[in-house]
Amino acid sequence: MNSVLIKNANIVNEGTIFKGDIYIENGIFKEIASHISAKSDHVQIIDAEGKYLIPGVIDDQVHFREPGLTHKANIATESKAAVAGGITSFIEMPNTVPQTTTIEKLEEKFEIAAKTSYANYSFMFGGTNDNLEEIRKVDKKNVAGLKLFLGSSTGNMLVDNPEVLEKIFASTDLLISVHCEDEQTIRDNTKKYKEQYGEDIPIELHPIIRSEEACYLSSSKAIELAKKTGARLHVFHLSTAKETDLFTNKIPLKEKKITAEVCIHHLWFSDADYKEKGTLIKWNPAVKTSKDREALFEALLDDRLDVIATDHAPHTAEEKDNVYTKAPSGGPLVQHALTAMLEFYHQGKISLEKIVEKMCHNPAILFQVHKRGYIKEGYFADAVLVDLNDPWTVTKDNILYKCGWSPFEETTFKSRITHTFVNGGLVYENSRFYDVKLAQRLTFDR
């Protein structure tokens, strides 16, 4: 592998920004200093004058749809889009077809990723009402964690047996990530509005059907159970102001047993956007009010919420272009997540240092990812160069998702990802991909 010398970068890392050089050798950050000279004529030199260098983003929640749903997406297409968006590592969810609820199916996904992924990868193992013995076989050093759907599941992945749920919480020391929405509340609300509107329920009622009450009831129960059993719990995609009060900023992240994330779409959109975007912004949990959005941002900044993720979950345009009850929930986000957060930086809502903390450092801490998420000597050289002043507009022509659409279409971002390095290799540069796949399976210091 060629050595790389990045010169004159504004390096954003561990709460500081400093100008300096980075020398990468054999896929590792070898030296970080104010000035570094090339070691030989074979070093690739990149002048980053005026640009910002951040650690590669770690996205702890994506759905890349492989196997079984590859008409929507696959690991190759979506990891490529992720790399273009500055995401160098991802953790993918188990609700594929077949579901990732046995060790055999888990390893099959690892084999696919080893051959096709552009970004570093790991997978969540899925829990069900009847696979506790399989859960006990999972190697916590080589698998990201356990995913439980406490609402909004596919197939048989809704874990709705309280006795089973408590037994899982008490029987594993895997990190447990949960989707929290109370299924009975949602069923009752759906029935009510179907009686009124039939199948064509107005999309504006989505956050009323998948309500604040449904979210809070489920997440508070999960937290209560985690406290009772001592389980390590991570609550995915918070969407309500009320839920933010369930989490603390009184202790460092490394010491927290109960953590939470917020997703890009819950920070960007509100219920006012349903009129224009329709089912394109139909997600579970639902995008809610502007007050919820403001409270989520506040909790992110004051460290009650620990991680920013995407919940990237593509569907085809044809699938989304349906009446409410038939349009699936989810949308593609990995290509545009970092640039969206940088837009908030330009608006004065968040610092570059905080973005890096929530998208790079904290996922690495929370999942105990081995030697990633930081620009540190001895760490894997996953890194992203950003030009904060190179505007571009999202159009059909530059969308890389297999589904071919984005909820950000026609949005102009002020910042652009110019270079992405994965394990020390330059895999993306100014809209061009190099024909190399340097991705590795993530491992965990547990």
UniProtKB/TrEMBL annotation:
The keyword Metal-binding applies. Pfam families: Amidohydro_1 (PF01979). It comes from the Bacteria. CDD domains: DHOase_IIb (cd01318). Its cofactor is Zn(2+). Keywords: Hydrolase, Metal-binding. GO terms for cellular component: cytoplasm. SUPFAM superfamilies: Composite domain of metallo-dependent hydrolases (SSF51338), Metallo-dependent hydrolases (SSF51556). Residues 52-427 form the Amidohydrolase-related domain. Its EC number is 3.5.2.3. GO terms for biological process: purine nucleobase catabolic process. GO terms for molecular function: allantoinase activity; dihydroorotase activity; metal ion binding. Catalyzes the reversible cyclization of carbamoyl aspartate to dihydroorotate. Belongs to the metallo-dependent hydrolases superfamily. DHOase family. Class I DHOase subfamily. PANTHER family: ALLANTOINASE. This is Dihydroorotase. It comes from Aquimarina mytili.
